Structures are given as structure tokens and as C-alpha cells.
Amino acid sequence: MLKEGFQPPIPLHVLGEAKGQVYPAAELHQKFIHDLFPRTTNKHGCVTLHHYHFHVEEGLPQQPVLVWIAGDTLRAACESVVLAEYRCRYDWRARKVQDIRDPVFYQMRFASAQGELMLWNERQWLVVYRPKRARQKSMLAGPARQLSLFELVNAV
């Protein structure tokens, strides 16, 4: 289109009369708040989302970050700076992460001032899935009956 000399470069006759629709900020916030996940990093720069434990940035211990999902990409940011991206499968109906993999980490101003002993590549970062713990049978049965002082228990 530029070779034809159109001014402006994207001419009106290509776009036609197409116009976007403007939504109020409150309505956008209401529609997308469910897919934004505020988290706090642990002392190693990791966060947990839907039982998945993954690395964000080691130079941000105990700091608030925002995690969100767009398409098949999970992103983590701090102060409007994207720190890490992962590929993920997300069940939009159940609103749960199904899988997190293939990390991409970015160089940014939050990097730790202390040099790293070993340089890690993307394949060495591990995403850990922590399933919900099933309650133990003894916890479901209720409290155990305390024996009297001189009551004997039959040993079989």
C-alpha cells in the first residue's frame, strides 16, 4: 500500500467506515477481572496459581506481581513490566489452569544485584503441580476417644 503513495499509509477505502466500539473502564474491569490474578512472590521469586508453582523473577522476593492469561499465554508483571511468560492451557469454563510450560524470562531492572552462581536456561526451570491434598481418613472420622488412665488396650 505504501508503494501506491496513499496518504495516510492505511487509506480509508481499505478500512471502509469500520469503527471500533468504546467501552467504559468499569465494564472492561468487570469483564476481565476474573482472569487477572494478583499474587505475591515467595523468597525465591515464585508464585502459585491454581496449584501450579512457577518462577517469575528471583530479584523480586516477597513482592506483589500481577499474573494474567491471554489466549494460550500466561504472563507475570510487576510495575507494568512483563517479567516472564509461559505457554499454558486454560479451561475458560472452569476458570482453571490445566498446564504451564515453556518459560520465557526477560531481562529487566528487577534482576538481583548479586551475581548468579550458575546461569539457568529455560529448560532447567521447573513448574511444579501441587494437587489438592485429600483429607486423611482419621481427620474425617472425628477426634479419637481418649483412654482412661488405667484402661488397657488389647494388643493383637
> In oligomeric terms, what are we looking at?
single chain
User: Whole-number average pLDDT?
Assistant: 75
Beta-strand level of the residues, as a percent range? 25-35%
Write down the overall geometry. elongated
Gyration radius, in Å? 26 Å
Largest sheet: number of strands, sense, barrel closure: 5 strands, antiparallel
Largest sheet strand order? 1-4-5-6-7
Tell me the number of helical segments per DSSP (H or I, 4 or more residues long): 3
Poorly predicted runs of 5 or more residues: none
Structural class: mainly beta
Provide the helix percentage: 10-25%
- Order of helical and strand elements: HHEEEEEEEEH
Q: What's the β-strand tally?
A: 8
Amino- and carboxy-terminal Cα gap: 90 Å
Folded structure, characterized:
This protein is mainly beta and 156 residues long. It has a domain at 25-130. It contains 3 helices and 8 strands, in the order H-H-E-E-E-E-E-E-E-E-H. It has helices spanning 12-15, 25-32, 137-141, and strands at residues 36-40, 46-49, 52-55, 64-70, 73-78, 81-91, 96-105, 128-129. The strands form 2 sheets. A 5-stranded antiparallel β-sheet has the order 1-4-5-6-7, with no helix packed on it. It is elongated and about 100 Å long. The chain starts with 11 loop residues before the first helix and ends in a 15-residue tail after the last helix. The mean pLDDT is 75.
